[in-house]
Amino acid sequence: MTPQKNKTLGEFIIENQSEFRYSSGELSRLINSIRLAAKVVNHEVNKAGLVDILGTAGDTNVQGEDQQKLDVFANNAFIKTLTNREIVCGIASEEEDDFITIKGRSGNNDNKYVVLIDPLDGSSNIDVNVSVGTIFSIYRRITHEGTPVTLEDFLQPGNKQVAAGYIIYGTSTMIVYTTGHGVNGFTLNPAIGTYYLSHPNMQFPVDGNIYSVNEGNYVHFPQGVKDYIKYCQKEEDDRPYTSRYIGSLVSDFHRNMIKGGIYIYPNTAKDPNGKLRLLYECNPMAFIAEQAGGKASNGFERIMDIQPTELHQRTPFFCGSKNMVEKVENFMQLT
Ligand SMILES: O=P(O)(O)OC[C@H]1O[C@](O)(COP(=O)(O)O)[C@@H](O)[C@@H]1O
Ligand SMILES: [Mg+2]
Ligand SMILES: [Mg+2]
After folding, report:
1. Ligand 1 atom at shortest distance from the alpha carbon of 121
2. CA nearest 170: which of 76, 74, 252?
3. Which of 20, 123, 170, 310 could make an S-S bridge to 27, C-beta 3.0–4.6 Å?
């Protein structure tokens, strides 16, 4: 049943409590706390040119990347909101070397969930006023409540996620998320600060004619990816396809989910395991893609079946319309 449009995010969460497999209130409170943090970040993004939030923060993160001021701001906003509302026992972030343990008021770790987050996705676009996003992934902890959270709680395969979503700070601000019961999109009415259900039951078209890849790296791509790009460009059948690459995973993914398309970030000489991080970029986007009828792989296996071994590990990423992902997998497996 397609949810009725123009319901607020809060109403939708209350009406769909039963879908939160583990508990009636905590997961919904967790989604709500992410909504609140997103409003804080959105407010800063929308005035980025007017306040001292552009440019680099002067530090590099564990990935060796220059942290943008907005990366740091968003990271602090989500950590503060999730900590204050005492809903999670731990957070892992692209911008933090190690995971953060969050103790409840009682002084121990009796909350059930851990959150992994890319607080600001598309950092290279911040200073040039192009849309950026936030990506989040939620798991039920493996260790017992009341005991210290451990790395094991974060190194779970994507098929164990209980919820995942993204916020896109674009021409409008949207939250798109799944709890394993389909994908729904909510648009912020900035005048009143409320999110409304604008994209109920989002579905990836099974096919598409848009491919998103940084063709500047073409010479370093695996042969299978080169062959697939040549296939997309060939004058034949419904091709050539359209090449669209925004440089923000969230934005490219969102457009492809609405119009049909594929996002590709393969391994290259510079990034032998690819650039995107498995735990807080690829797994959450893969969960959303599959829940919307799409597909996500590393070219050979399902992203959500990969057993993580490190918090910030990277993976090649092929994600989008099912037939397009299977086509590039065929090219990859032929070489
Ligand atoms: O500039 P490149 O190498 O094409 O990489 C762009 C990709 O890198 C990312 O910006 C990585 O995410 P972060 O901005 O969170 O580091 C993706 O959003 C985007 O799709
Ligand atoms: Mg990112
Ligand atoms: Mg980021």
Report:
1. 15
2. 252
3. 20
